[in-house]
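Continuing the batch. This is chain 6 of the set; chains 1 through 5 are on the previous pages. Same settings as before, nothing changed between runs. Recording input and output for traceability.
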Amino acid sequence: MTGPVTRIPALYLSHGAPPLADDPVWPAELAAWSANLPRPRAILMVSAHWEEAPLALGATEPVPLVHDFWGFPEHYYQVRYDAPGAPELAESVRGLLRAPGTPVQDIPDRGLDHGAYVPLVEMYPAADIPVLQISMPTLDPARLMDIGRKLAPLRDEGVLIVGSGFFTHNLAALRHSGVPAWSAEFDAWGREALAASDVDALLDFEHKSPAGRLAHPRTEHFAPLFVALGAAEADLTSAHTPVDGFWMGLSKRSLQFG
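Output for chain 6:
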């Protein structure tokens, strides 16, 4: 990737589920967000739905999507997102992350999962920007922040680094209509911690947040935030929230750093 570029922000977004496409509000919010971003040369996705150790690079050439959900109407399984592969980006990621004792593996037939393509369909519907997905090799927030720090130079090459999760995520506890107290409380706590750039509190969110274990009984949907935080460590005070509110009781808070 050559030529002058602008440093690209790093993002954490709540990715929703396949029915996001039918929501009357959320797709337009995502589209407006991407329209206000510098156009990236490539997109690096870290999704809650791919845990693999050691860290893995997905397909660098177009392959079928991973429809990793069950029980939905058939038309959700017909969605396509034929973005170009990103072999040059994959080579850069290997160079930044591979070190003695920290191998990087390739899984060339692993396509984009719904945590990656569902928001991208709304943000970049032309599917004309190269996309690479990498796995989360751990759910440890500090280690994920360190991965983000190592990836940060990609922002100066025009790469949009996206951590894709959900700001609250406990499907088993969604029993009634409306927003559960645990979801609202965690969302409010997270908003305040981010406004204060309180990284220590965020790193220890399971213990320092209200209802942390209810909001994230398993932490994979909050974990991608830490890759974004690491990639944007110098820009934490510029964090803002292009998308907030709730969807089916879950916080769809999404963040831009830089």
